[in-house]
């Protein structure tokens, strides 16, 4: 709409990242370059995913409105590469578990934010026309920050050698949920014909649930012995 | 280098994915094509609307202040008062929404719109006036601005809240900023064809109609009644008389058919065609022994049939006896139809030519016009609501039968020979075909036939070519006359930008941005507070886990 509107969206999208970075103590560890490295890994992983998708998944040529269930599922499966990428980032950093998780998640999420949200905001939110979708997009970026922190924590737990047997199942379930979350939400949208605000709410609730579960598991694992 | 390329690719793809993922059903910007009001100069006299550029906020016609706003009207809002009020207040533009299906609109609305349209076309204006067919998005905009106008009278609290939070405004923008250019290279096409009679000096009957249309916006002038009906009847007459003329004993007269363009602009095409025939052609059927000229104009409605003449017919002239035949046919077969003779002298001072026969009368050729319209300035002769759905095919056919029967009776002197009063010539093999008449009509109304468009738009060129083919199929000596204008002193000048892409943007008032900014600051405060206090939650959780473990 105006530059003011762009400012609003920008603040909504980026300030939570900034606050998280400052308040989580990452700034005291001098973790900035580590975050940038994590971001670079993000880019590399996305590129690999894209090459893979372009090579092995032909574009869906069914009629419009027909949902390609299997195809979408397979595409979400490629997101497993994200887990590998996060693991790669965490394994290259030495330090405490929280620190590793936060660095990987912050770098990853920020890279995604800059790569996929900045240009649409710059192009769209400054136009004459008003659309709620830029505000929604900014909210969505907040949700995805929480999502990546939870995902990094789950990956970290999964790759520990001293993970108790009883933890194996819930952690695996959470991992699967993290990877297929986008797919599940899309399926929801398709089945229930949700509006854009409802989708955002569903996303927030689902992400909140996943992150609470992983937080609980994390605390139990780290502080139980 | 490759890394940079890849990064860009990643970036672009992510962007596209992101944009695609969040596409909303309600659009924030919407492109549509609107059709501009008539603009032409007729012999240096300016007519119509001389503006095209619009950058303005949409307003309902109910609002008290319209200055520098684009006024949105449905056809029921478009009255003489609202239109001239908008002009008086210096509105930025007027946008009229035209319903897709005109037959669903009440008769009174149609009537009042036509009258206002006619009034609006009389007056020249600088304010851009556009007409656009209704669709979902435009109706949504109309409802929104209407609601805004309605909430004007509610309490101050509601109004403040509305202006800050819920109000949606619409900005209309014509992206084409070029100045309007005059078009002087337009051409007018006239078609002629004949059925030749036997005998050395057979008299000639000229049957003619103009085929162009006129209305508020050229791109929406389909002109079904005026003058699609005349063209349909003329083509049917050509077909039937061609059958009658197959034997040499039934050809008492030469029949000269002509279809002319420019009919809505003082019958310019007719004028040039007569000049071409009388002044330039070596031998023309128009030169000598013309019995009369029969002009067909607006014949698809009503139970009246008017014979318009420029001087009352004297007894024993061909014109007089034809009118007698016409009355007899009507009396014996369609007694509910009234036939009236309307006499209007040609006023040489007046710049407009009311009827086509006046062009012939000026050259001392006797002629008359048949129409269901009594007043030559009637709004029925130039309106965008004159579409195929407004045509009454039974009445069109009835009028065609009356004309054909009267013509046949006149040509073959049927009433003199003691033949029965209700003799029918056109029956059986020679009957009018309903299917052909309706398909001709739907073909003629498939594209707008405004004179501006006929010489350059492909659909319109095809239409004129098809009319020529139709002539060649039934008539002999078919000629196509293309009249160019004098470059320095054109009789008629048209202008471009008659169809214009317009973008409609949904916008919010500036106060809304402030409101949103406040909300976002509050949200960020909550986020800050909860992240600051995340440590407490973490410690509590830790303690809970430890006690449980022990």
TrEMBL record, chain A:
GO cellular component, one term: endoplasmic reticulum membrane
Name of a matching Pfam family: DUF2053
Name of protein: BOS complex subunit TMEM147
Chief subcellular location: membrane
Transmembrane segments: 101-123, 143-159, 171-194, 200-222
Family under the similarity heading: Belongs to the TMEM147 family.
Keywords: Cell membrane, Endoplasmic reticulum, Membrane, Transmembrane, Transmembrane helix
Source domain of life: Eukaryota
Keyword Acetylation among record annotations: no
Membrane topology term: Multi-pass membrane protein
Location within or outside the cell: Cell membrane; Endoplasmic reticulum membrane
Keyword set includes Transmembrane helix: yes
UniProtKB/TrEMBL annotation, chain B:
Alphabetical list of InterPro entries matching this protein: Nicalin, Peptidase_M28
Protein's membrane topology: Single-pass membrane protein
Keywords, in A-Z order: Endoplasmic reticulum, Glycoprotein, Membrane, Signal, Transmembrane, Transmembrane helix
Sequence intervals crossing the membrane: 510-531
Highest taxon of the lineage: Eukaryota
Signal peptide: 1-23
Coiled coil: none
Compartments in which it is found: Endoplasmic reticulum membrane
GO biological process: regulation of signal transduction
Pfam families: Peptidase_M28 (PF04389)
Domain Peptidase M28: start-end pairs: 198-309
Cellular component terms per the entry's GO annotation: endoplasmic reticulum membrane
Stored PANTHER family: NICALIN (PTHR31826)
Family indicated by similarity: Belongs to the nicastrin family.
Name of the protein: BOS complex subunit NCLN
């Amino acid at each position: 709409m105006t530059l003011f509107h762009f400012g609003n969206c920008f603040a909504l999208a980026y300030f939570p990242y900034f606050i998280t970075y400052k308040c989580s103590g990452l700034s005291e560890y001098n973790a900035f370059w580590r975050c940038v490295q994590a971001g670079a890994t993000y880019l590399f992983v996305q590129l690999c995913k894209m090459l893979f998708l372009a090579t092995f998944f032909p574009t869906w040529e069914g009629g419009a409105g027909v949902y390609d269930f299997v195809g979408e599922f397979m595409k979400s499966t490629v997101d497993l590469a994200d887990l590998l990428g996060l693991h790669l980032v965490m394994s290259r950093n030495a330090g405490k578990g929280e620190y590793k998780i936060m660095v990987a998640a912050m770098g990853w999420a920020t890279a995604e934010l800059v790569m996929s949200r900045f240009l649409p905001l710059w192009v769209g939110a400054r136009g004459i026309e008003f659309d709620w979708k830029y505000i929604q997009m900014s909210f969505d970026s907040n949700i995805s920050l929480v999502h990546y922190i939870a995902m990094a924590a789950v990956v970290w737990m999964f790759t520990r050698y001293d993970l108790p047997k009883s933890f194996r199942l819930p952690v695996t379930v959470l991992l699967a949920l993290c990877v297929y979350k986008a797919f599940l939400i899309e399926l929801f949208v398709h089945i229930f014909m949700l509006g854009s605000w409802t989708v955002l709410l569903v996303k927030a609730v689902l992400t909140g649930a996943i992150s609470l579960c992983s937080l609980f598991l994390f605390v139990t694992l780290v502080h139980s012995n | 280098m490759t890394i940079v390329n890849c990064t860009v690719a990643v970036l672009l793809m992510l962007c596209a994915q992101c944009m695609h993922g969040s596409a909303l059903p309600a659009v924030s910007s919407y492109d549509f094509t609107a059709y501009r009001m008539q603009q032409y100069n007729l012999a240096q006299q300016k007519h119509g609307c001389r503006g095209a550029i619009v950058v303005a906020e949409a307003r309902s016609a109910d609002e008290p202040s319209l200055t520098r706003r684009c006024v949105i009207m449905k056809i029921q809002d478009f009255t003489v008062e609202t239109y001239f009020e908008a002009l008086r207040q210096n509105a930025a533009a007027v946008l009229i929404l035209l319903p897709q299906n005109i037959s669903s609109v009440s008769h009174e609305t149609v009537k009042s719109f036509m009258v206002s349209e006619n009034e609006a076309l009389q007056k020249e204006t600088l304010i851009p006036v556009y007409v656009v067919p209704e669709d979902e998005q435009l109706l949504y905009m109309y409802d929104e601005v209407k609601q805004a106008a309605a909430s004007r009278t509610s309490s101050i609290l509601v109004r403040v809240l509305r202006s800050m939070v819920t109000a949606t405004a619409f900005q209309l923008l014509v992206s084409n900023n070029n100045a309007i250019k005059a078009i002087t290279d337009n051409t007018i096409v006239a078609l002629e064809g004949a059925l030749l009679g036997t005998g050395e000096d057979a008299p000639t009957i000229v049957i003619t109609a103009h085929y162009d249309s006129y209305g508020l916006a050229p791109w929406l002038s389909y002109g079904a009644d005026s003058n699609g009906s005349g063209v349909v009847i003329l083509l049917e007459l050509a077909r039937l008389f061609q059958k009658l003329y197959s034997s040499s004993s039934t050809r008492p007269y030469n029949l000269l058919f002509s279809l002319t363009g420019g009919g809505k602009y003082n019958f310019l095409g007719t004028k040039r065609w007569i000049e071409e025939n009388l002044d330039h052609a070596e031998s023309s059927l128009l030169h000598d022994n013309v019995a009369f000229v029969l002009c067909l104009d607006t014949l698809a409605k009503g139970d009246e049939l008017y014979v318009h003449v420029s001087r009352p017919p004297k007894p024993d002239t061909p014109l007089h006896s034809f009118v007698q035949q016409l009355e007899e046919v009507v009396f014996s077969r369609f007694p509910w139809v009234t036939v009236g003779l309307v006499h209007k002298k040609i006023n040489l001072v007046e710049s407009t030519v009311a009827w086509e026969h006046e062009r012939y009368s000026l050259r001392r050729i006797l002629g008359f016009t048949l129409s269901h319209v009594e007043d030559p300035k009637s709004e029925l002769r130039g309106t965008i609501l004159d579409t195929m759905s407004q045509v009454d095919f039974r009445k069109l056919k009835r009028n065609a039968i009356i004309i054909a029967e009267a013509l046949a009776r006149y040509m073959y002197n049927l009433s003199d020979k003691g033949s029965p009063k209700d003799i029918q010539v056109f029956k059986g093999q020679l009957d009018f075909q309903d299917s052909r008449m309706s398909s001709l009509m739907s073909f003629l109304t498939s594209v707008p036939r405004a004179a501006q468009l006929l010489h350059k738009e492909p659909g319109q060129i095809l239409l004129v070519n098809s009319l020529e083919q139709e002539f060649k199929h039934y008539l002999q000596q078919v000629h196509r006359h293309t009249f160019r204008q004098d470059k320095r002193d054109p009789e008629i000048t048209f202008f471009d930008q008659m169809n214009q892409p317009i973008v409609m943007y949904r916008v919010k008032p500036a106060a809304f941005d402030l409101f949103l900014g406040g909300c976002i600051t509050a949200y960020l405060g909550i986020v800050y507070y909860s992240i600051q206090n995340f440590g407490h939650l973490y410690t509590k959780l830790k303690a809970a886990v430890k006690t449980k473990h022990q």
